[in-house]
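1st attempt posting a full record on here, be nice pls
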Amino acid sequence: MKIKYGTTRTVILIGKYAFKFPTIVEWRLFLYGLLGNMQERKFWQQQPESQHMMCPVLSAIPGGFVTVMRRATPVSVGEWDTKEKEWFDRAVILNIPVENKPDSWGVLEGRVVAIDYGSDYRSGYESAA
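the predicted structure (as tokens):
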């Protein structure tokens, strides 16, 4: 078991799965974590043409309290340095709201996928934080 901490969510990695929970550091960040989980579920369900480039959402509790995804292997620094523009440009074309940073990407079954696409940078909620 491994635990990773982001700004709005805590991810518990167990075996083949990643369990995403809203952070409990402060109320506002907790709410953003709920929203992030709900948005990942929504994007996964409503964008089947882009699913080949998103880490699958296997299960989600309504309200955003928990999202369960497949566990991906982090991309290496070398991979990121050589492929970052290609991956991010493709995500933009496919309308996947993923940040352009290495820890938002992983490798699953030999392909690169967005593993953190719950922050819809187009909505502006992050800039209001």
